[in-house]
Each structure stands twice: as structure tokens, then as C-alpha cells.
Amino acid sequence: MTTHFFADTAVLTGRTVRHVTRSLDTIITTAITPVAIMLLFVYVFGGAIDTGSISYVNYMLPGILLITIASGISYTAYRLFMDIQGGIFERFQSMPIARSGVLWAHVLTSMVANLSSLVIVVGVAVLMGFRSGAGLPAWLAVAGILILFTLALTWLAVIPGLTASSVDGASAFAYPLIFLPFISSAFVPTATMPGPVRAFAEHQPVTSIVDTIRDLLAQRPIGTGIWTALAWCVGLLVVAQVFANIAYRRRGGRI
């Protein structure tokens, strides 16, 4: 049964990945918005923001990476919604294949597409002056956090992909996620914010994740912040998968 699941998921993932590779503009488009924001803040606003001894491009890159992920997962909801509208989803459900493989194919494709976009954004950041003396363990830790965050948001994207009544509704949920980093420590220190805004910024998931990635890349002690970041990522993943499972069961499937 396990072999059956992996084989079916691999075939279905190959199908959705081919759709992405045949329209590389999807990955490029996903990367354009974060790159544009990075260029704007570094070259227009960066000189007015005091980030101490760390360069502004180094300071803001973690937040840009999270925006990249939030931008990319909207396409997951879109692709899943289009499969349902086109009748392909139901057709797969009627075939003798692992039903959970249908969803996992979209999730894994999202991981591949988003990681590709992240590589593009980091490449542009390097051209803009981003530098880090972090060693391999720190980079692996950063990669692990980004992968976990991507997985959590991808399962979150599955929910509107399964339940939305229009293509706009399927992808619109990502907009609040894209703007969430702006009310965090991603672009400016939270100490500069007014009281209520600062309280929200310091206790929302993006701030802990951004701060942890920034400390890892800057070779600073991360303390207990990494556990808060991981708790947010795992918590979001569990909640998203539970509700995705509920939505999937209503369509006769099981994750």
C-alpha cells in the first residue's frame, strides 16, 4: 500500500511539475513581486532605516523570502481549483490510485516551484550586496525553516483550492499573507512602531521566523527564538492539514 501511494504520487507530481515547467512565467512572476519590493526598500527607503551594523539588504532578505513563499502558494490553490473545475480531480478520484496522492502531488509541486523562486530571489539579493559568513549548519537550518514554512502555507492553500467558488477566491487568500511581513520585524525594528502595532508585530509568526533566519545568517546566537519559529510553523501546518482533510473528505477523499 505504501509503495502504491509513493508510485501514484510520483506520477501525479510529474504531471503537475510539467505544467509548471511549461509555463516558467509562473515561477518568474512569483519572484518578480518580492524582487521589486526588495529593490524599492533597499534603494529608496533603505538609507532612512537604521539597522545598526548590518546592511539593509541583509536585514530585510528573510522577510522577502517569506513574501516569496506567500506569493507562490496562491498558484497552488489556483492549480487545484482548476483541476476541480475541469473535472480532472473527480476523474482521478474514480481511478484505482491512492486518493491522497492527488493532493500530495499539488503540495510537492508547490514545494519545487517555491524553492525555485527562493533561489532566484537569493541570487538577486547577492547581486545587490547580500553577504553572509554563515556556515553549512546555519544554511541548512535556514533551509529547513523555509521548507517547513512553505509546507505549512501550501496546506493552507489547499483549503481554498478545494472550497472556493471562483478562481479569484481560490488565490485571493494569499494577499493577507503577503502583507503580514510588513507588520513585523521584516523591514524595520519593532521598537520603532507605536504601542499596539508593536504588540501585534512582536507576537505574530512572521517576526519570530524572520528574526531566527536573520540571526542564523548573521552568525548571532538564536536563543529560544528558533523554538518559537518552529512552533508557529508546525502549529500552522497541523491546523492547515486538519482543515484541508475536512475539506477533502467532503469531496470523498482522504489525506
From TrEMBL:
**Compartments, record wording:** Cell membrane; Membrane
Q: Which domain of life is it from?
A: Bacteria
Among Pfam families, the record links this protein to: ABC2_membrane
Q: How does it sit in the membrane?
A: Multi-pass membrane protein
Provide the ABC transmembrane type-2 domain boundaries.
25-251
Query: Which coarse location class applies to the principal site listed for this UniProt protein?
Result: membrane
Give the keywords, sorted: Antibiotic resistance, Cell membrane, Membrane, Transmembrane, Transmembrane helix, Transport
Segments passing through the bilayer:
27-49, 61-81, 102-130, 136-158, 170-188, 226-248
The record's family statement is: Belongs to the ABC-2 integral membrane protein family.
Q: What is this protein called?
A: Transport permease protein
User: Source species, please?
Assistant: Paractinoplanes durhamensis
